[in-house]
């Protein structure tokens, strides 16, 4: 499966904001945005032009793609699926991305980043409703139970993640169960529950041209 394997801090710098792509490092003074909030490249200091129109739309799309770790073709398929469903297309798009299995695991605090969650899923450390699922893009539904497999209960990465993310909180649409080392999807998230500083309508406008 294709994925971005380059340096991720430059992606945050390009968008001018924290995308939380590097787990716990993003919460320290070592974060690239804290040290130098400039676009990457030798001409970064010169890129001060004000974006408008297409430029704004493109940046919003790139921002969301990078937050969830999906590439262009996959992102477009998410948009086309959202556009076919009844409802607000931009919100449907964010809901589809938010209910990816790797994102749910990250939101539950079982991984320090979505990239780590994706790797843990690929290695078969989780079950959905009792069945092992190793597809990061698997879409969870309301009522689904996502748990760490019995054989992975002592996995060092998962244990470290759970200890590291204490206090950050779990979204209202998820219910964490420490006894089972996992959680349940209590509902599909509303736009208000998807805490992302993005303007999804700009993405709709971009793809609707």
Shape: globular
- Intertermini distance: 29 Å
The CATH homologous superfamily of the largest domain is named Ribosomal protein S4/S9, N-terminal domain
- DSSP summary, beta strand count: 5
How is the CATH topology of the largest domain named? Ribosomal Protein S4 Delta 41, Chain A, domain 1
Helical coverage, percent range:
25-40%
Looking at the overall shape, the CATH architecture of the largest domain is Orthogonal Bundle
Q: What summary fits the major beta sheet?
A: 5 strands, antiparallel
Q: Strands across the major sheet, in which order?
A: 2-1-3-5-4
CATH class of the largest domain: Mainly Alpha
The gyration radius over C-alpha positions equals 18 Å
The ordered string of helix (H) and strand (E) elements is HHHHHHHEEEHEEH
The computed structural class is: alpha+beta
Low-confidence stretches: none
Total discrete domains: 2
Total count of helical runs of at least 4 residues: 9
How large is the share of residues in beta strands? Answer: 5-15%
Mean pLDDT score: 85
List the helices and strands and how they pair.
Layout: H1 9-15, H2 32-35, H3 54-68, H4 72-84, H5 89-98, H6 101-107, H7 114-122, E1 126-128, E2 131-132, E3 145-148, H8 156-164, E4 174-177, E5 182-185, H9 200-207
Antiparallel strand pairs: 1-2, 1-3, 3-5, 4-5
Helix pairs in contact: 3-9, 4-5, 5-9, 6-7
